[in-house]
Amino acid sequence: MRPQAHITFDQCLPLLVRVVRELVPSVDFAELRVVRDMHGRLYLMVPDNWSDSEVGALKEKLQSVLGHYSPGMNGVARYQDTLAGGALFQEPTLVHWVDGVNLHLIERRAMGQDWALQPQAGPQFHPPRFVFHSLKGGVGRSTAMMLWGRELVRQGRTVLLVDLDLEAPGLGAHMLEPEHRPVYGVLDWLVEDLVGNARAAMPKDMVAQSTLVNSPGLWVAPALGKRAFDSPENVMAKLARGYLEGEDGLGFAARLRHMVEALEAHVKPDVVLIDSRAGLHETVAANLLHLNAEVFLFAVDVPATWEGYRYLLSHLTQLAQVSGKASQQLVDWRERFHMVHARSSMSEADKRRFASRAFNVWVDTLYDELPPDELVDAAPAFTFDEFDSDAPHWPLSILRSDHFEALDPMMQLASIGESAIREAFGELFSGLNHCLALAKVDIL
Amino acid sequence: MNSNEQLLETLRPAFEAIPEEVAHHGTEPPEPASVYVVPGHESALNPDTAIVVGDRGTGKSFWSSALNGEATRMVIGQQLKRIRLDNTCVGWGFSSETSNRNHPSRRVLQRLLDQNFNPEDIWRTVILYQLLEASGQAFFEGTEDWPARIQRVADNPEAEERLFASINEELESRGERHLLVFDALDRLGNDWAQIRVLLRGLLRVGLDLREFRAIRTKFFLRQDMWEDQSVWAFPDASKLTHGRVLLQWHRADLYGLLWHQLANNARSGPQFRQWVQREYQCSFGEVTTNGVTVYVVPEAIRTREANQSALLQAIASRFMGTNRRRGNTFTWLPTHLADAKGQVSPRSFLVALKHAHTLTQRQYPEADVLLHYEGIKKGVQEASRLRLRELQEDYPWIQQVLDPLQGMTVPANEEELHARWRDDDVVNRVLQAAADNNQTLDDSVRPYLPPHSLENQAQEGTLTQAMIEIGVINRTADGRLNMPDLFRVAAGIGRRGGVRAIR
User: Fold this and answer.
1) Of A263, A374, B16, B399, whose CB count within 10 A is highest?
2) Cα separation of B460 and B66, whole Å?
3) pLDDT over threshold 90, residue A23
4) Which residue of chain B has the CA closest to A98?
């Protein structure tokens, strides 16, 4: 036998597809499921009518080809031979496009099953929600959120801001005096909920009104409350648990949704603004996909940003492979994603450069392929041209401005003129207002 | 029928009247009523601007002949008072015309070069001849044709220079100017070598004459000629290129043109103008020349996009489908008609609307709009076919270059395009077509010009560069090549996507 090549994570699925094709040329990949366990090893599930000799040959070959990524001789099974049986076939999957076929992959992860879940279909009843996400801090994400929230309150709306950036909390400190913080933070709810201790009464102790605006209605649910001041030593221990799956089997996304619903029931806001955790973390899926929200992806035009968004959107693409065609949802979740160009010079050239970079990522990930023989919009394909200002990759821009660098709103906001705010954030606000109008229509 | 339906009914003739033809041809001045004075074109029309660069269909020939026509020049002059067209006399320095009255035709020019006339002498003669015709001096007496006139100039440099100076003085003393317009410069010769020699000579003369402030020259150039470095390889060329102006149509200009069309249609105009007056409390200006009145689109709907968008909503679907996230008609239309440089030709814009109207009437007669989104989509497809045909007139090689790309998807790596062209031997076929076509050529036929640098660099990269120059493709930020929908669909090219179509 020739020595094995060093097989690593990325090569496994293509190798598996090749082996299956070779040994079972008549295979229909739609009937197969591949289970990837927590450590990354691959199990292949095949239809019940496959013969013993086929299954045996596959076991042997896959074990030798996949190397460390093979679980051994139990790496292939018919559905009927598994504990779960046919139910396994019905589990949610990611769809990987491998070597010309759609491969259905069941992901077993330590946490973050949410990444493999389709967004909930069907109508949902809640106030319009807006999620603000970025790959890194310091791009003005929280500032934009606070200022828009303040703007909406001035227009007479009630707004709830939720800080989900638990690792780098900011909203509480930025918007509430320490003595006005609520008792609990979002993190407390998530921890109490794990042991079934999150009471209906909790939301009233999780929110407080900010004085950043003179009129009432700017509610904040910070990541951490007063309890964290009293017991700071417990914060890390809570963070280690906050994202876990509950004992009742509910994943983080479902738990989070319950929390947001509970807060909404208490505050009764017209709009909910959610500050997402920054970066690429499995729990981000909950914010982006499972809150039925308008999602704003903040980006500074540097290579690291585009690299990061390529990883994020490539992953989401595996969900779009199925939902794009089969789902009966009113609004494709991809349509609710929007790019935000932070620290822009606002020049036309700058904007087009950003749009082009964003297009390069979207066209390789979340946009549908449009075959040459298909007429424009003959099918409602989800794809847009490079400089289409209606496209999700086309940015809403925020002007780079010294006023908002390292801003402490409690101390400095009063001294910044409204015209400076309008100049920097005006385009973003009008885009957000437009989405707010759309979101209302979609939800009702 | 309610009042809104009635209004829409009255606008139909204006859409039906939009002409189908490809573009403005020849030297006949356009109808005064068809002249929409684009706010951003003031510099291009200014006699002091020497170089005007425009892509196919941006209005080079249109403005050339509008400046040359008496009535049309007055229509422009009354709206753009600052550029003082009222005391400017205009004549053709070059055009597609072949009467040889104002200037030698392409065939005559070729003969003149064969006879070893100096290009600068040729153009100094053309300009002086026209100036003297106006002032009636006898310098050219006894010369029957262009060779004789040019010979006279070549033989009498001193007298010629004195004449330029004295004519300039005379014009200045009367507060007048004489403008020579040079259009259709891609028809100067049968191949790039000839065009370059003549064009370079012409531009040098233009530069020399800049000092005479009452004698103005204006050159309308195609984008690829402007990009051709060798044309500008003469001393002080930068003095001429410094103030060059690009002919561009912004979104507001396109809608302004539409309102102009509606307001100036004999049957639709009165109701449209009344309606705008009622809705926006602004009235149309009136410019009357030779008994013809042109209605001037008021500022409120000429440059202000919020008003333009509201006005469009009254006659067209607001969104491009039932899904409101798939695009706002006001932005969708220009976006989908834009080439790779973001430019929209006004002709394709109007034609798209004409077809959108026809299709709406035919297929969505019950719609409460004149332009239904399905009709608009089809209209844009029609316009994109027309745009490709239009481009083909200027760049006959485009089809040969696009054909092998059929079936691919964009954005694509440059190498993928090159490989397809190599397989089809496209570079040589384009060069061959140029060689064949220009054997027997009379004046009425356009020469087949290959991309200007292909003769020196016969390689696939030159084709890519040429396509970028004329806005058929562009390089995305990561270096791949993209083709806008305007050409992509007509060329049978798909768009890449991370989510694959299930076939």
Assistant:
1) A263
2) 39
3) yes
4) B500
